[in-house]
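A further point concerns the way the authors explain their paired sequence and structure data. For illustration, here is how one protein appears when written out as sequence plus structure tokens:
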Amino acid sequence: MHAIVYHGPGDKRWEEVPDPKLIDDTDAIVRVDTATICGTDLHILKGDVPAVTPGRILGHEAVGTVLETGPSVRTVREGDRVLLSCISACGHCRFCRLGQYGQCLGGGGWIFGHLIDGVQAEYARVPFAEALPPSSAPSCTHPPRSSPSTPCPPAGSGPRPSAPPPPSLPTRPTP
């Protein structure tokens, strides 16, 4: 497969790399259909994130299709479309249970393109695939009082919100 590979500040290359493989029973392999770039990727390319070492496949935001899952994955299956969030969630630690996925103690958090190979590639290994939404769920369950044009919450970033949005702030009278 081909991927964007970081080789140090200012040096990225579209290269042939090995296809990802399942490592843990809770992994999935996803064909990347669409990926994006954000400011964090630009900081990596400038050399501002020393934890990202040469040889790392970049990218942490993508939409893709599940091709394969590990034996412990029961919530997604081959053919499911998923949104791969920049923040991964183990789904089990106290922070994930509280919805604070960026603080994940179980190996999640910002890992794609940072601590493991990212998603600016043809295929990606997705840890914690069990935290992706169930394949039997609708493709998007909108929070209460939202319209179908409202973006769906990202899959893989933990459970979908079920609480209503916060109340509106009071308005001040016009003088």
Summary: Strands lie at 2-6, 12-16, 28-35, 62-69, 81-84, 123-126. Residues 32 and 64 are 4 Å apart (CA to CA).
